[in-house]
Amino acid sequence: MEQTKERIIKSAIKLFADKGFHETKVEDIALESGVAKGTVYLYFKSKEEIMDTCLEFIFSEASKNYEIPDELNFSDSIRMVVEKNFKFVDENIDFYRMLSKGIYSTSKDTKMGRRYCERKLFEKATSSMEKIILKGINEGKIKKEVSPKYLAVTFINTIISSLIMVVNSKIKGFELNENEYKEEIINFLTGGIYEK
Amino acid sequence: MEQTKERIIKSAIKLFADKGFHETKVEDIALESGVAKGTVYLYFKSKEEIMDTCLEFIFSEASKNYEIPDELNFSDSIRMVVEKNFKFVDENIDFYRMLSKGIYSTSKDTKMGRRYCERKLFEKATSSMEKIILKGINEGKIKKEVSPKYLAVTFINTIISSLIMVVNSKIKGFELNENEYKEEIINFLTGGIYEK
Amino acid sequence: MEQTKERIIKSAIKLFADKGFHETKVEDIALESGVAKGTVYLYFKSKEEIMDTCLEFIFSEASKNYEIPDELNFSDSIRMVVEKNFKFVDENIDFYRMLSKGIYSTSKDTKMGRRYCERKLFEKATSSMEKIILKGINEGKIKKEVSPKYLAVTFINTIISSLIMVVNSKIKGFELNENEYKEEIINFLTGGIYEK
Amino acid sequence: MEQTKERIIKSAIKLFADKGFHETKVEDIALESGVAKGTVYLYFKSKEEIMDTCLEFIFSEASKNYEIPDELNFSDSIRMVVEKNFKFVDENIDFYRMLSKGIYSTSKDTKMGRRYCERKLFEKATSSMEKIILKGINEGKIKKEVSPKYLAVTFINTIISSLIMVVNSKIKGFELNENEYKEEIINFLTGGIYEK
DNA sequence: AATGAATGAGTATTCATTCAT
DNA sequence: CATGAATGAATACTCATTCAT
């Protein structure tokens, strides 16, 4: 049943987020999903493949956050991207916890794995953001001299790292007013923080 | 000898950056340092302690990037922070490679370890950046309505993620003109991208 | 399967008897039991736990040697205890070889381990022997002035050390006629060696 | 200096008694003796040799407990052997603690090691006891039918195990009145417990 | 004689993966 | 489809011993 596979994925995401890849045992995933260890191997060739499938699943979801209607203007587009992402964090906190683990990592990359998905998502995000910046230039909000590509990368990084901040605040009891912070980010990205 | 300990640290940083924590074997570190496995354990109680010492060492170096003279104005302060950091990346590429690993991680944290150092560095960075932003407000560059704290966090995140971009470009052959990108970041953070 | 666990216990007793605790490797136990090293750890958390289980098992068997019907008189009771024990040695030579190792030992004790079992067995043995001595006093065989408790301890020690002698004779080619020796012990304990 | 060697031996006896052979590290012995690890190896070829020397030293001391003047009668000889041994236990508690460790042992025996010393001591003890028993027979205290050899073994075992009891009582807080117990043992061995 | 830094062989334990039922 | 007993390769860590100083 495909339902079983989905249950395994969900459990894996939760556990990888809690304990990281290496600290999560296949047995843990099996227990959490309510199946036997052997069953996990009916649906996945290896533990790596479980991780890869988790990432593929979540990155494909995340990429929808960068689908913005053409008719929106610069500021509203920025607002929509930021709001979609903040909403997504709320609903997929485990995913971002997984991402924010960092450091004690492995370098093993697999075809469908992290790098591939990350890059796919990143490319989607920056190309989408580039269009939004072009809107800003056309609307006279942003100077013509800037490099839309580099600025897009910068905007995306700013958004992503702000999401990580939100996650950290949720988990580590950092004090951070999510809504105020979000508005500050939007304000910042739309140039609202600088005196004319 | 302290020289031996230092050689081990250097080797460990390189290897953790190359292969991540779990994929790096203690034997690898010993070989790379030109000592026997047992010798590593003369200087460190465990593999974890090696990682912790690496982080402590490098985070304490990195925190110097946020020491800015009071007499500099807003824009020059921003420029100095960004330039110091870009220079530091060039000279400590292994460290940033280590940081940019992400995902397949562990959650084990030790007292002197990652969280502690990360937070210490982050707090130093944001408090330093907050002062710079206050300069910006006093100079009339930044609106009085902004939250200096949130903006500081955002500025720091923007800088850090730009550094990660540079590292990725160096390693994965991403095409990125480091200098142009750096100028774009400075420009962005000092409000230069927006039309008056 | 419980059968596998039992096979492991039997092999462990044999090996601990042959080579002692430290000289017996977990791999040896696995080989001797015809299972893989990992399998041993399915049934036991650690090598210590194997030892503890061996001891628990064998001490509980040994304690049966001190179960004597109330209706037997003093001399017959002594005879029965001694004979049961000599028989037990014959059938569980490995166990006594394990006990007689001595000296190059460890001091690590675990809850269910040695001390606990030893004391339980010793208490069972002495309390049982105390009853037999009381029979001896009641029957006028033993003087009323003696301390039944101390005498019980002494009788038990005499029996146990005679068993160790038998084991040593079996293993190290000590010349010792088991039956004659046994009769001498019974004779000794029932006062038969002394002139009236 | 021979003084250093003696200090090492004393420390080793104490530590072996505390923690057993395997749990005592050569480093521990060095620390306890106030010398460097390397120095230990100036006086002993190996850790085994330290143990062997400890045993040799202590067994040779212990064998003096069985040197009894010919002119003493049976009962006084028994009393002297028992009293010497009880006194020796008091003064060399570490040695008996070492002996009473048992079980988690090793089987490695070395030339000068345990078996050799133990047997030497045991032979000295039993041959000495045999003479005492012959006195008993000559004095009409013990029946002529007994086997002096087997009885000697039994007497020695009774004494040795009573010493172990005393040690255990000292260490594990067992309640045992040492003097009463000693008198009971003497009484027992001289036939005083049985009604005529 | 004394030191203690360096060594590396040796081992308990873990856990992803398999496969007979 | 599902199971979970069995596997064994892989690895962090220990400690007796050596030897240059």
Can you describe this structure in just a few lines?
Four copies of one chain form a homotetramer. By secondary structure, chain A is an all-alpha fold. Chain A contains nine helices and no strands.
CATH topology of the largest domain in chain A: Tetracycline Repressor, domain 2
Give the proportion of residues in helices of chain A: over 70%
Head-to-tail CA distance between termini of chain A: 60 Å
**Measured on Cα atoms, how large is the radius of gyration of chain A?**
19 Å
Q: Give the DSSP E fraction of chain A (strand runs of 2 or more residues).
A: under 5%
Named CATH architecture of the largest domain in chain A: Orthogonal Bundle
Compute the number of strand runs of chain A.
0
Class based on secondary structure composition and strand pairing of chain A: mainly alpha
* Biggest sheet layout of chain A: none
Largest interface: A-B, 49 and 49 residues
Q: Look at the structure and name the CATH superfamily of the largest domain in chain A.
A: Tetracycline Repressor, domain 2
The quaternary organization reads as homotetramer
The helix tally of chain A amounts to: 9
Helix and strand pattern of chain A = HHHHHHHHH
Bulk shape of chain A? elongated
Mean pLDDT metric of chain A: 85
